[in-house]
Design brief:
about 180 residues; mainly beta; five-stranded mixed β-sheet; 15 strands; disordered N terminus
Length: about 180
Amino acid sequence: MKSKLTAVALATVVVAGTAAVAVPASAAPAKAEPTRCHTADLKAGFATGEDARPEMEQTEKQTQAYIWFTNQSKRTCTLSGFAGVDMIGAQETDGTWSLARSSKKPEKMTLEQGDTVDFSITLLPVGRSTPQKEKFVPAKFLVTPPNETEHFTLKWPFGGQILKQDGATHPGTYLNPVGR
């Protein structure tokens, strides 16, 4: 009897043109997840503050340089993975060196408008007395955001030289994922 009464009451509301429907919260439309950042969404550069500068004058240990990406778009976007980094050398014999990736696991980084994230490049500097054929003198870095094909061209601002290991299986110069 109850279901018959409910059906009659619902029919009365529908006929009156004001049907009310309860929608469970789980059926409400979900906010779309941000999509990945594209090169056009970003700015890039080297971190040049005193605490971010690589120690290129020392030759006893590895050092780090940091490259940042800032979301300059009007939307929230994500970056995950490794940037592509090709170093272009200043010497005629240097050519281009595509940096190897570390074994660190990437994390998904969400960037709202104006947010910045960086990644590090581990470098193995060498002294001026190192034979010319064993050193790479950085001039420019071609930096491609993760999962993109267009790059930024950044001038190397720190000087120094790196041990040339562009053919090594485990070189002393390599890059880490965005956010690490």
